[in-house]
Design goal:
There is one protein chain. With about 270 residues, the chain is an all-alpha fold. The chain is built from 11 helices and no strands. The protein starts with a helix and ends in a 14-residue tail after the last helix.
């Protein structure tokens, strides 16, 4: 394996392993997970929305001037995707609608793939930056697996299918993102990464405030709001963890690294010719 692939793919595999641990734990208690799938979904809504507001959106705005446009694109793109799936696979008696699970799983997969890209970009800057970013991202990998499995169970999918779909969406996509992006990491400008961050945040916000929040109207207020609050609290713990500041430092070094590619005063700027 080429040297530029080794570190990002290795840490991407660690992230996938952590996600798989979460999957195995909830899969072993599948009946309990299925009974409480709506509560898991509400907790996931609180967690994803909080991480989007406190972490993903600020970084997107830091990296890209066009972030507001891509944020709206991600949000309304999720809305269109959700309703397109509902039209293609209409609800049938005794069967839960496909879009209940499809849109959230796509959002998780897209976000996890971008996590893999971040591994490649930050390791390209320096090994230290890559380690900081990886450790910060790995913190939220465990609940991602739990969330993905619970979403599939809420849609009435079997245990085995739920496990493998959640594994592909939440675990396998991270090393895949690192593997695909590592060879072209030097072509990824901060504007591009910021746009991807913003789209991911918009999609996650739609999922958090739409499909995942839907059970709130059919759940007892104390239980439902308590689940959302638990998700918000978990996200705050992840955001305030000391290693998370290292991730922010890694993104700052990415910002500086992008400026390093700009022509210096002693170098002609051929882009103007």
């Amino acid at each position: 394996m080429p040297s530029y692939l080794q570190a990002p793919v290795f840490f991407g595999l660690i992230a996938a392993f952590v996600t798989t641990i979460g999957l195995v734990i909830v899969a072993q208690r599948a009946p309990w997970t299925e009974r409480n799938a709506s509560i898991f979904g509400l907790a996931a809504a609180g967690m994803l929305a909080t991480l989007a507001f406190l972490h993903i959106i600020p970084e997107a705005f830091h990296l890209s001037r066009q972030a507001p446009i891509w944020l709206a694109t991600g949000f309304f793109g999720g809305l269109l995707l959700h309703n397109a799936v509902a039209l293609l696979f209409p609800e049938r008696p005794g069967r839960k609608p496909v879009n209940v699970a499809f849109t959230p799983i796509i959002a998780i997969a897209f976000h996890s793939f971008i996590d893999g890209i971040i591994y490649s970009v930050t390791f390209a800057n320096s090994f230290e930056s890559g380690v900081y970013a990886s450790l910060g991202l790995i913190l939220h990998e465990f609940p991602e697996g739990v969330i993905a499995f619970a979403i599939m169970k809420r849609a009435g999918v079997s245990n085995m299918k739920s496990f493998w779909i959640a594994f592909l969406a939440a675990a396998a996509t991270t090393p895949a993102g690192a593997l695909v992006s590592a060879p072209i990491m030097f072509m990824l400008e901060q504007e591009t990464l910021g746009a991807l961050f913003a789209m991911s945040a918009g999609l996650l916000l739609f999922v958090a405030t739409g499909p995942l929040m839907a059970p709130l109207k059919e759940t007892k207020p104390a239980r439902g709001l308590g689940a959302v609050g638990a998700g918000v609290f978990a996200a705050m713990l992840i955001f305030l963890a000391p290693i998370h500041s290292g991730h922010n430092h890694a993104m700052d070094t990415l910002h500086d690294h992008d400026h390093d590619h700009a022509p210096s005063a002693d170098q002609p700027d051929f882009s103007q010719m």
